[in-house]
Amino acid sequence: MKVAVVGAGLIGLATAYELARRGAEVTVVGDRVPGAGASSNNAGWVVPAESGPVPAPGMVLQTLRWMAKPDSPVFVRPELSPSFARFFIGLLRACSKSAYDRSFEATAALARGTMDALDTWAADGLAFEMHADGELRAYLDSVEYRHAVADLGRYQRAGLAPEALSGDEARAAVPVLSDAIAGAVRFPDERHVRPQTVVDALVARLAAMGATQIRGRVTGAWALPSGGVELRGGFGSLRADALVIAAGAWSGQVARLLGARLPVRPGKGYSVDYAPAQLDMRPVVMLSEAHIAVTPLDGGTRVAGTMEFGGLDERVSPVRLRAIQTAPGRYFRTWDPDAPHLTPSAGLRPMMPDGIACVGRLRPFANVYVATGHAMLGLTLAPRTGALLSAAILDGSDPEELRPFSPSRFGA
Ligand SMILES: Cc1cc2nc3c(=O)[nH]c(=O)nc-3n(C[C@H](O)[C@H](O)[C@H](O)COP(=O)(O)OP(=O)(O)OC[C@H]3O[C@@H](n4cnc5c(N)ncnc54)[C@H](O)[C@@H]3O)c2cc1C
């Protein structure tokens, strides 16, 4: 079967690779360097423990408070458009406790097996930087910490093994943490990678498997009467038996070429790499109140975070960047926001109104599929999204883990 994948980010590349492994003739069409933007600039965390979606109980009030502060963890640039209004109404609806619980469970189930999948990728010859040193969520506020400890049951039910640590226990585990830390929750089985190395490994393996990789922007798409699809762009035209739309935050634009509507919007985040490393530590650390991720990588420290709902642009806001550069100073013994670092970058997370991914067949088309909306977990969910979706496309299977993510929940 010939399958075209639009988008050479982590989701498109992982899906293309899993399709090629199952014998499909794959063509990936990407309009820029593979992985550019979110798929390379992300924090590098492979963390089923972070399966909680953005819409959460209490989120609306908190966001309204944060909106007055341009350096807050979540920032909304309001827009006078029906799609903006529809998106935020959907987000509001998804803030109930029951919706949050359902989304957490569905996402944790999709993430289950991601470590095994990464090991399978490595055994298949994909060479990438990976660390298995766990995650630590550090809390400055003892009330926030107590709330987190009271909620550990959901992680245990999801098959994870969270451990509550006092401030002293957290400092014993990660000595660079400051005396201000009130407590921490450790997830010992989480991993992290240097995301660009995963992108590069997928690109190289796809090339070795004989998959075609085209650089170009898809500007036209048609469902053919025969059941296949045709794509057009500066690269010419391309026909395939099936199409996967994995264009990240731009997936709505690609779906529109076929006359379909997908309510995906960008959630911008930033990251900056300090090199040499600023912190001598092994696990990744979540600065819980600041919602900032700190990642130790070979030869450096990456700091990433913020969620900015705005347009499809990857410009770096100096105010929001400064917030992620300075926050670690409150959590670690030593931290210099102005230490030598590489050029900061931004990436767009593909966000759905209900906060969970959108993966499956796009109705009414027989052979058009979507794989997007992975929000803050695109790296974590890429291996299982690719494996389950490729099985659905090639065998016509209907994997249970993908059902909660069907595009049909948006009438698509
Ligand atoms: C700061 C930050 C930190 C993050 N940290 C983590 C983390 O630690 N762990 C985790 O799991 N996730 C994390 N994420 C989320 C993760 O990075 C994203 O969910 C993921 O990269 C999305 O991948 P994607 O392939 O769907 O989209 P993208 O990476 O955006 O790829 C889509 C590609 O499609 C291309 N495209 C668009 N339109 C067209 C067209 N018409 N024709 C051809 N190509 C097109 C785009 O140019 C782009 O290259 C983070 C994100 C950010 C921003």
Features:
412 residues, alpha/beta, six-stranded mixed sheet, globular, binds flavin-adenine dinucleotide
Describe this structure in words.
With 412 residues, the protein is α/β, with parallel strands linked by helices. It has 13 helices and 21 strands. The strands form 4 sheets. Strands 4, 6, 7, 8, 15, 16, 17, 18 and 19 form a 9-stranded mixed sheet that branches. The protein has a 6-stranded mixed sheet with strand order 10-2-1-14-21-20, sandwiched between helices. A 3-stranded antiparallel sheet has the order 3-9-5. The mean pLDDT is 96. The chain binds flavin-adenine dinucleotide.
Mind sketching the topology for me?
Layout: E1 2-6, H1 10-21, E2 25-30, H2 38-41, E3 45-46, H3 59-67, E4 74-76, H4 82-93, H5 97-111, H6 114-123, E5 130-131, E6 135-139, H7 142-150, H8 152-157, E7 163-166, H9 167-173, E8 183-187, E9 191-193, H10 195-208, E10 212-215, E11 218-223, E12 229-233, E13 236-240, E14 242-245, H11 251-257, E15 265-274, E16 284-287, E17 292-297, E18 300-309, H12 318-326, E19 345-351, E20 358-361, E21 368-372, H13 378-395
Parallel strand pairs: 1-2, 1-14, 2-10, 4-18, 6-16, 14-21
Antiparallel strand pairs: 3-9, 5-9, 6-8, 7-8, 11-12, 12-13, 15-18, 15-19, 16-17, 17-18, 20-21
Helix pairs in contact: 1-10, 1-13
The structure holds flavin-adenine dinucleotide.
Flavin-adenine dinucleotide is lined by residues 6-12, 29-32, 36-39, 41-45, 217-218, 246-250, 254, 269-271, 293, 304, 347-350, 372, 374-380.
